[in-house]
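Suppose a colleague, Dr. K., hands you the sequence of a protein chain of 326 amino acids and asks what its three-dimensional shape might be. Before reaching for any lab equipment, you can write down a predicted structure in token form. Begin with the sequence itself:
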Amino acid sequence: MTERNLVQAVNAALARAMAEDPSVLVIGEDVGADGGVFRATEGLLARFGKDRVIDTPLAEVGIAGLAVGLAAQGFRPVAEIQFTGFLYATLDQVLNHAARLRTRTRGRLTCPLVIRSPSGGGVRAPEHHSESPEAIFAHVPGLRVVVPSSPARAFGLLLAAIRDPDPVLFLEPTRLYRATREELDDDTPPLPLDRAFVLREGTDATLVAWGGMVPEALAAADALARDGVSCEVIDLATLKPLDEETILASVARTGRLVIVQEAPLTAGYGAEVAARVAERGLMSLRAPIRRVAGWDTVMPLPRLERDYLPNAMRIAAALRETMAFA
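The predicted structure, expressed as tokens, is then:
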């Protein structure tokens, strides 16, 4: 077993996938000689060669288009987009081609590609480097959206994403890249996609979070535990498709729901979670659903970033508000 942080877990998953399957390629800006902007692809060029680790021009739409073409012709490309603010340029290829290819060809072709990108704030990066656009991509039919929150889940979910026959957007929380370390064996099996993970069981309230907000949710649950409140914490991990059964089962036990997202509040993915519970679990609720989110502004980098991002204190306050309902 080797201790790895999240970015090292990503690197290990890529290396294993490439060793197991010669059709797996890594493409993107600076992924080769430089090992990626956060060193997620470090060492892969030396191990697998320039035909499988391919540096591209600075053109995100070109990277996405190349990935679609490779995937349609039998390869399994893993494309890196350096920051999520640059993902918007890929929307044409992802929405109009990658996500539609199976339907367009009536199943004759599939599009087994992964687009990886650092995501979210917390590192005081410049503009375009701290976005949380998961809701935009979760709206695209035919596209999976995965957001790991720990080294072990990053490793297992990335392996599963690379093996999936359809396109996957894999958003890696930048603030968690080097935040924690976990024991992780190279032979660890893939984790199932499309399933949420119950990280902490509870009886009084359900906390749903993903990505960089998971540690904040766990910290808020710890704070409430000191007051005698038992919170169940769920890491969604796969946003699209949503594992609503796990959420509904939890809300049926607790009667309260607080959803945490890093992105701005309006039309964020938390609204989808709230709608699913309102549609199928309304009679279980003992209090209104609460969302804790970023503000409806462009993130005010760098000095006010900490005031923008949800934290354990704001989450704990929302939980206490829900507990005030009889």
